[in-house]
Amino acid sequence: MQKHTISVLVENKFGVLARIAGLFSARGFNIDSLAVSETEDPTMSRMTIVLRADDRILEQVKKQLNKLVDVIKVIDYTRKQSINREVLLVKAEVEEKKRPEVLKIIDSVGAKVVDVSHNMITVEETGDEAKIHALLELLRPYGIKEIVRSGAVVIGKEG
Amino acid sequence: MKLKGAEILIKALEKEGVDVIFGYPGGSVLPIFDALYDAPVKFMLTRHEQGAAHAADGYARATGKVGVCLATSGPGATNLVTGLATAYMDSVPVVAITGQVKTFLIGNDAFQEADVTGITRPVTKHNYLVKDVKELAATVKEAFHIASTGRPGPVVIDVPVDVTIHETEYRHPGPVNIRSYKPTVTGHIGQVKKAAKAIMSAKKPIIYSGGGVIISNAASELTELARKTGIPVTTTLLGLGGFPETDELSLGMLGMHGTVYANHAIMDSDLIIAVGARFDDRVTGKIEAFAPHAMIIHIDIDPSAISKNVKVDIPIVGDAKNVLKELNRYIKKKPDITAWMKKVNDWKKKSPLTYKKDNKLRPQYVVEELYKVTKGDAIICTEVGQNQMWAAQFYQYTKPRTYISSGGLGTMGYGFPAAIGAQVGKPKATVIDIAGDGSIQMNIQELITAVHNKLPIKIVILNNRYLGMVRQWQELFYKKRYSSTCLEASPDFVKLAEAYGAVGMRITKKSEVKAALKKALKIKNVVVMDFRVEKEENVFPMVPAGEAINRMIGGMA
For B62-100, b where at least 16 C-beta lie within 10 A, e where not — what string? Predict the structure, then answer.
């Protein structure tokens, strides 16, 4: 099933996240990632939801979201020009002698080392899904200890 | 002048035109009940909060107004939940006010605390927890607006007890304007024209009319469409009364226990005009096999109902009344459907709804006689199961808001408290609850509510000493292994009625039915009629679950 990114503008009130989450769970829709924060207008929040669904389910998700009283707007970025970003923090176990090699990889993909201890290295990467995925694949052979991802956020290119 | 939250709440309800509240008191709502003590609005004490929720729902369905119920925090509120879910599934405008523990105790597992907004979220259209007395009046206004507009539904207002004690200046809130809630009520004109064109050129069209026609008071517009085009009409369970069943164009109800001719007609049609109906699984049967040659026009106020179960060709989002009015304007000629109507009328002649006409006391006969004795002029409430289906099949509904039943959720114990609400809302109407011996026991405590408030409801128990519908499924699909469906141990309903101060009657012979019904209808008190009907009568026709709806058993053409 295809991955879709939808952006949901909601009232910035308590309980709204529960309404959205409840809608997904009650109807058996799966969420891949979810990011929530305030917008330029403090009375509104934006939720960026990544989900896997076929066209029919995606259509239902959008309609059901629109049906919630606290939802102001639903934007589907599946067929829209957009900029997609996610923050990744990854901790890898790297022995002393392999450190230069790993640092080189990190540098070559434009990621940033944010913490180093005697055999541990923590890397920060910002990018779209492909970029995050690529870095993780490069680091995997060295021993990944922990992955933390922010979930995708997306902004439209036009207007 | 400063008012207490409780007084503001009552004032706000009065401003919404509320004339009756159904409910039950308790600790967290003491200030509200204190304010009610000398308020003009009528309060009706039920004997269980579930009864209050169903009564508010029945009142709403019978009158078209918003029904209101009130319960205390914790168990009071949780007892409303089945009633709210019932109203939600059938799009009934209800506002439920629940008490809550003090604001600072919320989340502390305080005495009689429950997370009511959390519990009711999936079964309400919207809900509120009011944390500031200043927001109370505006919240009530908003709640009524949301409950009664768009696709209606229940709304909960959860009010902590301290909020009802705090004082503030009462100001009447201005008109409701919610930026995130703007239901589409007018149909897209291009779509309406497209639909009109499809209708005029159809060869085998059928109108499939649902509860939305009744909710939006569109019965006359629907009738106009049918008469103008000569297209036959089938209704859903909740759509009964949206089109007169006595009309020659009526095909009665469709679906699992629908008529043979309605099911054949919709399966064979080339155009379905769906109005305020949602292609529920009890209507479509096996979805892949449903109406394979039909183009579908779907008129509905709820965009999420469109193309949810079946793919729609011409969707029109809007209020049924508005859209039908427009649609009727664009219908310039009758479609040529003479051959189709001949076929439909042949089905109708060949396979009418029927049952065995012998000397035994059969439940269908009781319903048929009830129709004759009342001349079709009554509000029929039902419980859930066989009684509900026989009430749908053998009583002819000609007016909207006369068949009141839990369709979507299928709540046993709904009918009697709903009848209480209907009788309160329509004091002059004859209100009858058609019940089974199982479901009547699920809210039997409300007998005292009806007797005490002089609501002369008639309860027709089709007593077969079984949980009949489940038994029917066990007979047909579980090798007659009647697991826990035999109700030989039931109370004596006549004595029970008398204990509550109602009138009890027992009818055991077919020959007694007519006279007994006539007698009961003359009594100005609650009458409980215990009809000892044939034990193993089945509801036919029947489409087995998961089958195409023209694969009916019983009453086959």
Answer: bbbbbbbbbbbbbebbbbbbbbbbbbbbbbbbbbbbbbb
- Search chain B and give the residue with CA nearest A61: B304
Nearest residue in chain B measured CA to CA from A72: B180
Q: Give me the domain span that covers residue B259.
A: 189-350
pTM attached to this predicted model: 0.96
Q: Mark whether B298 and B378 lie in a shared domain.
A: no
Same domain, B204 and B344: yes
- CA A25, A29, A33, A34 torsion-angle sign: negative
Nearest to B353 by CA among B336, B339, B371: B371
Q: What is the CATH number of the domain that holds B508?
A: 3.40.50.970
B527 in the same domain as B436: yes
Q: Which ranges constitute the DSSP H helices of B121-188?
A: 136-148, 161-165
Query: Exposed, middle or buried: residue A81 (CB in 10 Å: 0-12, 13-18, 19+)?
Result: exposed
Which candidate in B301, B304, B310 is best for mutational testing of the A interface (most A CBs within 10 A)?
B304
Largest CA distance in chain A: 58
Residue B221: alpha-carbon gap to chain centroid: 21
Contact B180/A70, CB-based, under 8 Å? yes
Per-residue pLDDT of chain B (557 residues; tens, 9 = 90+): 899 999 999 999 999 999 999 999 999 999 999 999 999 999 999 999 999 999 999 999 999 999 999 999 999 999 999 999 999 999 999 999 999 999 999 999 999 999 999 999 999 999 999 999 999 999 999 999 999 999 999 999 999 999 999 999 999 999 999 999 999 999 999 999 999 999 999 999 999 999 999 999 999 999 999 999 999 999 999 999 999 999 999 999 999 999 999 999 999 999 999 999 999 999 999 999 999 999 999 999 999 999 999 999 999 999 999 999 999 999 999 999 999 999 999 999 999 999 999 999 999 999 999 999 999 999 999 999 999 999 999 999 999 999 999 999 999 999 999 999 999 999 999 999 999 999 999 999 999 999 999 999 999 999 999 999 999 999 999 999 999 999 989 999 999 999 999 999 999 999 999 999 999 999 999 999 999 999 999 999 999 989 999 999 986 43
Q: Has residue B546 been placed in a domain?
A: no
Q: Looking at chain B from residue 136 to 155, which residues have their Cβ under 8 Å from any Cβ of chain A?
A: 146
Residues B446 and B527 in one domain: yes
- Between CA B486 and CA B22 the distance in angstroms is 34
A18, A26, A70 ranked by CB distance to B118: nearest: A18
What is the C-alpha separation between B91 and B93, in angstroms, rounded?
Answer: 7
The verdict on residue B84 lying in a domain is yes
Same domain, B326 and B374: no
Give the count of domains, chain B: 3
Say whether B126 and A69 touch across the interface (CB within 8 A): yes
Q: How much is the ipTM here?
A: 0.91
Least Cα separation, residue B181 to chain A (angstroms): 6
B100 and B222 together in one domain: no
Cβ of A67 within 8 Å of Cβ of B303? The answer is yes
B155 and B195 fall within a common domain: no
Across the interface, of B118, B146, B303, the residue whose CB is closest to A69 is B146
- Chain A closest-CA separation from residue B387 CA (Å): 31
Q: Which of B208, B77, B74 is nearest to B154 (CA)?
A: B77
Residue B297 sits in the same domain as residue B408: no
Give the residue from chain B lying closest to A23, CA to CA.
Answer: B122
Domains and CATH numbers, chain A: 2-80 (3.30.70.260), 83-156 (3.30.70.1150)
